[in-house]
Amino acid sequence: MKIGIGILTLVFAVGIVLSSCDVIEPPYTEENGTVNPTDTIFRKILLEDFTGHQCPNCPSAAVIAHQLMELYPGKIMLVTVHAGYFADLSSPNYMTDFRCTEGTALDNYFGVSSVGNPNGLINRKDFGGSRVVGPDDWSTKIADLLMLAPDANIELSRTFNTGTSELSLNIDVDFYNEFTNPIMVSAYLTEDSIIDYQKNNNPAVGATPEIPDYVHMHVLRGSVNGTWGDTLSATGVVNGGNYSKSLNYTISNGTWDKDQMHIVVFVYDAATLEVIQAEEIKLK
Question: Looking at domain 42-282, which of 3.40.50.12780, 2.40.150.20, 2.60.40.10, 3.30.2010.10 is its CATH number?
Answer without folding.
Answer: 2.60.40.10
